[in-house]
Amino acid sequence: MKLSLKTCFYTMLLFSFFHAFSQEKLVSPWPESSNINQPWARWWWMGSAVDKPNLKRSLIDFHKAGIGGVEITPIYGVKGEENNFIDYLSPKWMEMLDYTIHVSDSLKMQVDMVLGTGWPYGGSHVTLPHAATKLIVEKYTVKKNETFDRNITLDSSKEKTPASLLYVVAYGNDGSFVNLTNELQNKKVNVKDKGLEGSNIKLPNKLEPNKLNWKAKKADYTIYAVFSGKTGQQVKRAAPGGKGYTLDHYSEEALKAYVVPFNEALKGREGKIRAVFNDSFEVYGTDFTPNFFEEFQKLRGYDLKKQLPVLLNETDNEIGNRIRSDYRQTISDLLLNKFDKSWTNWAHSKNFKTKLQAHGSPGNLIDLYASADIPECETFGSMPFDIPGFRRDKEDIREGDADPVMLKFSSSAAHISGKNLVSSETFTWLREHFKTALSQCKPEAEDLMLNGVNHIFLHGSTYSPDRAVWPGWQFYASVNFNSNNTIWEDAPALFSYISNCQSLLQQGKPDNEILLYWPIFDVWDKYEKGTLFYQFKIHSLSDWLYGTSFYDTTKSLMKKGYSVDFISDNFISEAKVVNGNIVLPGGNFKSLVIPSCKKMPVETLQKLIELKKAGASILFEGIPESVPGFKDYKKQEQNLKNLLAENKIQAVSNVFTSLEDAKILPESLVNTGLKFIRRDINGDKIYYLVNHTAKTINDFIPLQVENKEVIILDPLTHESGNAIVNKKDKITYVKIKIEPGQSYFLKTENTASQKKWNYFESASEPIALKGNWKLSFDKGGPKLPADAVVSNLESWTKLSPDAEAFSGSTAYTLQFENPNPKIENWSLNLGDVRESAKVWLNDEFIGTAWSVPYKLNIQKLKPGKNVLKIQVTNLPANRIHDMELKGQEWKIFHEINMVDKDYKKFDATKWNPMPSGLLGPVTLTALKQEN
User: Fold this and answer.
1) How far apart are CA 658 and CA 617, in angstroms?
2) Are 619 and 588 in contact (CB under 8 A)?
3) CB 837, CB 854: distance < 8 Å
4) Could you give the CA distance from residue 24 to residue 16 in angstroms, rounded to a whole number?
5) 930 Cβ partners below 8 Å, 6+ apart?
6) Contact 738, 672 (CB under 8 A)
């Protein structure tokens, strides 16, 4: 049947209508945003001198900027504000907390809080019995047939805090052991004194309660007096009402006593706080708890009192190291089971979550992080990046500790235990005070997200009331994200970028295929100058991480393109095998790699063999030589060797070959230099790709997924579209162009669902925009400099003394001719920007350029004349420099007032003025669309 021309026309019209309608109804590939996607901020309450109007104003500022929640940490106060201080947990303080929660709820924000003030946990209600404890041992020698007759005490000039004598034991040179504890005067029963019913009673000698009268009859003896001492450490940076001893972190009894005032204060507020937070373990020198010896015997199976000479021997020997390993493991177990898990259980009883920084702890970081609902890592200092134009001036930085392997301890704990959120204390000491640019924040945040963090906490923001003169109240180690910092002008762009990234990184589940065993016993077994208190600190990675087979294997796997999570002995014990995959509470893994290690518990090896027999891929890079610990170690060592021999366990010659033989293939996209992390949503994948190299990557990159369409999502602009893909040999190749400093997400799907992604290439050489730039100083201080006109772009600090001292925002306006009216798309490159810029073209807002590369794509220019307006905001450093040169005091804080990045006295008079404004060159490049 022939169709009439009219019928064809209406058919085509109808098709066009439905096509347009379907285009309008495209489902956005971006998840719906929530406050959990947004960055949160640690919020310092100085002296808790807060009031409702300023709390409300601050929270509204946060909300408008794109911050999703706050974590309240009360700290020391401001001089002159003493009358406004509010004691922690007082009725007035709780009123301020309630008001904060109320306003936050109205803004769809959430609130976390520290269970105390400053850090670590402690305070005025911590009594001496529950304060942080240390082991003190005094030694005395007694010759054969001599009598030891004295009151056993500690030198009060050395130990300021009273200590309790727990045990007195004697070791003979013939190998004999005598427990003399019951021979002490206060333990003895006085047979001459009778009670009411005629029984012998104990009448302690109050003047000499620890008097010992004992004769060494059989040999020469060394007497060890074991005291439960106190570190005397006070809470650091405590707020009013929060000063006092730090808490014993190995005692459930101490924790129960600690939460008593919180039980009362938080009554009726269950569930209104999102989470309670515990900062990094900075309880110094605490290697003991009063019932340590009893707990040790339960956990390790032998009486430690009989081994004190070996434990405390200051030589590097096998037996001593084994006993010290047991000691360190016991501290780890007590911290995990008596404190961290109990703390989380307490929080759950109040309908709160827990957020824990485990680093610095003297224990297995994987297990400790996993005990909380939200494990949290931290960055400290500045990391290097190869991005052209990325500034990292040596005089303004301290070297960073954000090693990717260290960061993965927290995210691994979350991934294997099934916790969706991994947080980070972010940007601590990123640069010197007042010298941190938004552009310097971006790659640091990206490295966190690439290593599993998806819930960034800014470090931080200081509550500062309207009455505080500029620069307001300041915390000594933070970037200070609030309206007193000039970078706040364009900070919403940074926060939007983080929010867009985290909205995708909180989707689905982590998709790391490899588990890597952390052989912690190899660390615990080291002599380490005999210390019993062994911390796993981010500031001392060379002591326990760098140079280990574990570290080297992690780096080599990641470099090859494998995604790795770490696993502990405890989590290995929970593993199962289903369809050849290793199943943990948090998900499935394809292989478990055992790096070369010397010590492994028999129980762990037995479990690994069980998993291997059930069909799991278990790859040994090296064979363990022995077992950790002291009890029956020779028998246990033989059991280990028998298991290895009976099950023919051998080391693989090449872990990569073995993985590929098992059809576990890496993401070879890393060969381009791109960094990535991958997540899984019901079989589809999300890739986060970041280019921290010095080169543009413009190619088809391979993804280890078969026959998929791919959506490209730009977290900087919120744009998205379906990529050009090639599908070959079970690999999907995606066309992508990504410049240094840029990032994209790739999201796989079975059928293309979006409009096509726009691929642009340069159609001309860059065209410099020249002419007379009009400068108008819009806002900032100490005062607004006079307007100016310049033809050559250079730092505005060169214009005048007022401009040199100025920190704030300045508008640059230029009128220019359209270079080519035929061009539909242009790239605007602002060149060197100090430090961020909002851009308008012909009075239409184009976007914010705040990170390297400072580029924005713009569409067709008007024929003839066009007007470009660029509002540039610099850092607050020049204004602070000017203040200090003039002797204007702003450092008015009760503690640590103030320090620079190296913890020396802060002195901005030594600084040179920082280049500010639009340094250019500003160019336009014609673009042509490739697809």
Assistant:
1) 9
2) no
3) yes
4) 12
5) 759, 760, 761
6) no
User: Please, are residues 893 and 76 in contact by the beta-carbon 8 Å criterion?
Assistant: yes
pLDDT at 158: 81
With CA atoms as reference, report the closest residue to 681 among 11, 22, 21, 31.
31
d(CA 438, CA 456): 15
Task: Find the mean pLDDT for residues 108-128.
Answer: 98
Pairing of strands 69-75, 40-46: parallel
Counts for the chain of helices (H) and strands (E), in that order: 22, 47
The three-point CA angle 144-173-310 to 5° equals 140
Q: Could you identify the residue written with the tokens 């673009």?
A: 927
CA atoms within 13 A on the CB side of 553: 25
* Other residues' Cβ atoms within 10 Å of the Cβ of residue 146: 14
Tens of pLDDT along 771-821? Answer: 999 999 999 999 999 999 999 999 999 999 999 999 999 999 999 999 999
Residue type, 900: D
Alpha helices in 531-673 (DSSP H): 541-544, 549-560, 569-572, 602-613, 633-646, 655-661
Q: Give the Cα separation of 348 and 275 in Å (integer).
A: 9
Q: Is it the case that residue 214 has pLDDT exceeding 50?
A: yes
- SS3 for 844-857, per residue? EEEEEECCCCCEEE
Between CA 731 and CA 711 the distance in angstroms is 16
* Alpha carbon distance 525, 503 (integer Å): 43
How far is the C-alpha of 52 from the C-alpha of 739, rounded, in Å? 46
Question: How many Å separate Cα 103 from the centre of its chain?
Answer: 28
Q: Mind listing the pLDDT tens digit for each residue in 482-506?
A: 999 999 999 999 999 999 999 999 9
Is the pLDDT at 930 greater than 90? The verdict is no
pTM comes to 0.95
Structure-model confidence comparison of residues 15 and 919, the more confident one: 919
Give the phi and the psi of residue 543 in degrees, each rounded to 5: -80, -30
Nearest C-alpha neighbor of 675 from the set 688, 663, 658, 662: 688
Shortest CA distance to 435 belongs to which of 383, 496, 382, 473?
A: 382
Burial of 121 (0-12, 13-18, 19+ CB in 10 A): buried
Q: Using one digit for the tens of pLDDT, what is the confidence trace for 397-453? A: 999 989 999 999 999 999 999 999 999 999 999 999 999 999 999 999 999 999 999
